[in-house]
Amino acid sequence: MIFPLDQLVKFSGNIYEITVAANRRAFQMSMVGDPLIEENHDKVVSLAAMQLFNQEVTYRIENNQ
Known about the structure:
Blueprint: H1 5-10, H2 15-32, H3 35-39, H4 44-53
C-alpha cells in the first residue's frame, strides 16, 4: 500500500489536520502492534491515512484553552 495521493488531492478539508491525524494514528497503531501493519508490509502511515480517508477512523480537534 502506498500513500493515497489520489484521495489527498480530492480532500476538501484541512490538509494539515489530516496529516497530523494520520501521523498520530500511525503512532497509535505501532504502539499497540496492530496486526494490519504486518499484513500491509509495515507501511503504517499509509495504512493510517487510508483509515482516515475511508472514515474507518475519525479524529477531532480538541481546544485546550
